[in-house]
Amino acid sequence: MDATRQNPLRGRRRPVGSALILTVVLTSLLAIVGVLFVLLSRMEKTSASASSQDRQLDLAVKAVVAMIGEQLVADTPGAGSQQDYYDYPDANNLWLASLEPASGPVWPQVSVLQGAGRITGVQAKIVADREAIDPNDPNGADADGDGVADAIWFRLRDLTTGKARPVYAAVRIIDHSGMLNVNTAYLFDPRKWPSEVDGSDQMQVDLAYLASGKVGDSNDAVELNAARVGGDSRSEYLTNVVWNYGDPPAPFSPFDISDELELRNRFTLNLRQGYRQDELVVARIERLWRTSSEKATKVSWAYSPYASNGKQIPYEDAPDIPLWFSRIHDSNSATYDLRHISTVYNMDRLIDPAGARMVNVNDVNVDVRKLYEALFNGIDPGYPGRTAVAAQLAVNIRDLVDSDSKPTAFKPPGSTVTYYGLEPQPFIRQIGFKISAADPTSDLNNEFGVELYNPFEVSIDLGNVHLYLRDQKPQPSNNVDVKFPSSTTSIGPHASVWLTHKPGDPNPGNLVLAIYRSSSGAYELSQRFDLALVRQQDGKEYYLDRQTTADAWFDWKTVGGKSQYYARADARWNILYPDMALFGETLLKATPSNRAGDPTTWDWVHNRATRRDYNLPSPQPLPLTSMKDLATIGDISRLLLIGPEPNVPSSTIGDQLRSQPAEETVRLDIRNTKFADIFQYVTAMSPGNFGCPSTETRVKGRINVNTAPGFVINRLPWLQWAADREINKKKHIDIGQAIVDYRSKNGAFRSIGDLMQVAELACMQGLADQEPNGPDLTPDGEPNDLEARDLLFSRISNLVTVRSDVFSAYIVVRIGETGPQRRVLAILDRSQVKSPSDQVRVIALQTVPDPR
């Protein structure tokens, strides 16, 4: 073998580099796997932490909602421990926040769910959304997310995270009854609906004003009506929507919860789908306010939140706080924001301070004792005539609204006095006679007649009515019960019947007012009779009217052969006074409605109607309007506090009012604070008239005068009309704002009767021209009486309340001082809470995204 030949394996190196590379790769892979494992672990931990935070935020929201529910139950009359009947942001209602800011701008009160006392004067300043919470200075929270402080931070007791981090919350609770219900309000228009301006139902709240800026704009009302109904059907809308608590039938389409959530979207912010103003999200109701460029300014003008530098994002020329405040606060401004004072859902109840159903004064099926007890409970215990006022008012209310002619009798428990009611009755209007010139000693030669007149709006049954002739020289045998013709069984509204003694008639009757005797070739009066009109019942006589005659009337030397007619002036309710004057030799015709109808009769009647007009309340015939009898509860002040006394001739209305006593002594003076709480116990609203169960107490659409801004209050019937009167313009009367100013100075209205202390509400008193054009629905020519003073209160009394049952709660909860947070909007309804164990209904619980 060749020695130089090499071994092919000799000198070949082993592949050490490949092994190293493989080692590095494997090590890298292991490192990557390790990193991935760590990342996955961290992701799982982060996910678990986020999930835990979500659960913690959920629990915090539920805890806050439960706290609010407990507060609302505790504040419910008859169910809770709190004693106040009203809802108003004050020390008795710490949970309730003011709806609007006051000058400053500051919030008069913010909601307090935990803590010892009331918090007022929180500045409506710009705050950053994620500003850290300072536990030592919790003011300045933004509950609704519009960038403006409107609440305070507080730490939730007994609630911490798993890592012992505290949980904070800020809450703003507002009253829906401080707003206009866009599903129940409609139009106030005396021109279009002159019979629908009495204030009896919620549709008379003037929602159409929001679009037009003036009273009685029927064009805007047509748009509103079309949006909700699809046709002009006012009475059906009342039944199927206003007084319906379920889903309304077709074709009715009221605004729904989606509209509510948009209206409640924060306070100053409007939803948007882009960055341009014309890309705002607009609720259906807002479209009715945006039909022109002028109306477009009335929607909420801000659509992005404030940053801590005071500017809106992303616009550098955004409005600042002073402009925001002026637009929210100045209700006279054309740019007044309408969203925060509008709602699709509000409600209160017809309940008294014990939580029991109010007594309906128009319900004839209610026992008169129950009506008496309600009135009695509403009168201050210190009032000396408490029993008498409550009893007489109860029987007079009953006799006004019932359909019979039987006076109600009631003896209060523990009393020795029985009180009797006033029923509609006829009055003696006219006496006519013709004495024979030849021989008056024979009754068949003389003629006599008496006119009975019905001044009321309903027919009067004469079945138990008697006209007695009473001898001036009392002798029982000479007291005559005048025979009524068989055809005379009733008197229609504003109609008359004549009772006569006329020779030549087949049945001349026995109405002989004067008897004569012959004396020395002449004739002289030997006997004359006065008249007494009575109603017989249960063996008693109730004197309705009396009229005294006079010897001079029948002096044969003066009146022999002549017709003579003595009459009462029936204008201005002077018919009730037993004061007759000679009209002449022809009968006094029916008084016309105006002078052009009959100048002679008109002038004679109105020239003699000089005594006080007490304007007796009159029941209304059925059917008339949706509300009968007492159209509003404020009208109870028109009832008299007098009544008949059986078998006592001097107890007639005319006799009791003959001295023209001050109205305060014969009527319920509702300005007297002793009577203010009566309106906590009685109502004139009748849900049963619209198909509701007799036990129903809920009422949609009324306005809480304790929480509503002046702009909202002015939408009540007649208030804006009164403010727009030229005489009031000179005085710059703003009745709604006057009510707000009064409560700001004096505290809550504890009853709607407290409104009578607001002087501006009596602005119709003394206006002589109010009768043909204004809220006086029963013109009487007395511009300075209590009715004129109480007019506006009466017209709004059905539509105002001092409490509420539906609220919105803006809630933000945060974990720790700078941790994650969540916003929600809760709409809560306590209208079915009747006992401490009942729960508040959560109508909506909507998560609200953080503002951007």
Describe this structure in words.
The protein has 19 helices and 30 strands. By secondary structure, the protein is of the alpha+beta class. Among the domains are: 71-178 and 808-848, no CATH class; 351-423 and 619-650 and 661-673, no CATH class; 427-608, no CATH class. Helix content is 23%, strand content 17%. The longest helix has 59 residues, at 16-74.
Structural class: alpha+beta
Integer average pLDDT:
86
How does the major sheet shape up? 6 strands, antiparallel
Alpha-carbon Rg, integer: 39 Å
Distance, first to last CA: 94 Å
Helix content: 10-25%
Uncertain stretches of 5 or more adjacent residues? 1-6, 291-300, 313-319, 623-628
Quaternary structure annotation? single chain
Query: Largest beta sheet: what is the strand line-up?
Result: 3-4-5-28-29-30
Percent of residues in beta strands? Answer: 15-25%
Shape: elongated
Q: Number of DSSP strands?
A: 30
Figure out the total of helices: 19
